[in-house]
Amino acid sequence: MSKPKKQVFSKIKAVKANARARVGTPPPERVIPDPKQKLAAKPKHKPTMADLIGSKGEEE
After folding, report:
1. Rounded to whole angstroms, how far apart are CA atoms 45 and 51?
2. Separation CA 22–CA 54 (nearest Å)
3. I need a labelling partner for 9 at 20 to 30 A (CA). Which of 19, 26, 48, 58 fits?
4. b/e map of 9-47 (b: 16 or more CB within 10 Å)?
5. Collapsing DSSP states into helix, strand and coil, what is residue 60?
6. Is the alpha carbon torsion for 35, 41, 43, 44 positive or negative?
């Protein structure tokens, strides 16, 4: 059985651990919706009355 690897001290990890102990864990990241994807989901033009009447008959 080999010896466990010695942990190397990291200043960054120590500072972050200290901050978490004092302030608490940061809130989880919130995903902001991409405006380009939102625009791509919307049709460019409103459907015409003929399209609306024609599509109704296909559903039934």
Report:
1. 12
2. 64
3. 26
4. eeeeeeeeeeeeeeeeeeeeeeeeeeeeeeeeeeeeeee
5. coil
6. positive
Backbone angles phi, psi at 47, to 5 degrees: -70, 145
The gap from C-alpha 3 to its chain's centroid, in whole angstroms, comes to 41
Query: Which residue did the predictor score with more confidence, 13 or 29?
Result: 13
pTM of the model: 0.38
Token pair listed for 9: 């001290």
Count the neighbouring beta carbons within 10 Å of the beta carbon of residue 57: 7
What pLDDT, in 10s, does the model give residues 20-45? 999 988 888 888 887 777 777 777 78
